[in-house]
Amino acid sequence: MKTAFVGKISLIFLATFFSLFLFKCKNASDKPLNPNGDSELALLMRMMNDSTAAIKELVAQGKLPDKFPEAFLKIHTAKPTDQTVKTEEFEAFAASYVEGLKQLYHSSPSELETNYNSLVQRCINCHQSVCPGPIKAIKKLKIEN
Ligand code: HEC
Questions:
Q1: Which of 33, 37, 77, 112 has the most CB atoms lying inside 10 A of its own CB?
Q2: Model confidence over 25-51: pLDDT tens digits?
Q3: 56-75 pLDDT, tens per residue?
Q4: Torsion on CA atoms 75, 144, 137, 53, rounded to nearest 10
Q5: How far is the centre of ligand 1, averaged over its atoms, from the C-alpha of 18 (Å)?
């Protein structure tokens, strides 16, 4: 009995902890567009995050995936949880991200790692301004040398 109770309490604790973490960028607005689900932008970000982790592995071997991720150009139009993040600054950071992505896909082998790290820095630059929660995780995407 007692262990079941303790189990329940720790589950509640864990759930609270994780929802706090997940909702870091999502609680600034009174009227979330998508109160019961993840926003289009949040889902896109998760894809970008996973894809960047995969690209990191390739770049570390001196390779690039051959297909440019067109889907990520949606960063300009995907609906965020909180519409107030869509400032002029956001647009500038989004443009810088897309530019970094294009640069990476046009890299010569010697520029590959620098251009990859510059792309990750562009993720961080935007996050520093609009959504600091995931920065620690994003930093792990950098290739240390
Ligand atoms: C132009 C600004 C901008 C850029 C560039 C950007 N992000 Fe984001 N990111 C956001 C915003 C805003 C959110 C919150 C999305 C929401 O809740 O609707 C977010 C959310 C996230 C999340 C949390 C998603 C979730 O589960 O809720 C992760 C992880 C993330 N970004 C990683 C990245 C990575 C990795 C990159 C670069 C490859 C990146 N971001 C580039 C603005 C940006």
A1: 112
A2: 654 444 444 555 899 999 999 999 999
A3: 999 999 999 889 999 999 99
A4: 50
A5: 17
Could you tell me how far CA 92 lies from the centroid of its own chain? 16
- Which residues touch 98 (CB under 8 Å, ≥6 apart)? 72, 73, 75, 76
Among 76, 87, 81, 88, smallest CA distance to 42 is for 81
Cβ–Cβ under 8 Å, residues 142 and 109: no
Q: For a ligand 1 pocket test, name from 87, 119, 131, 142 the mutation site with the most ligand atoms within 8 angstroms of its C-beta.
A: 131
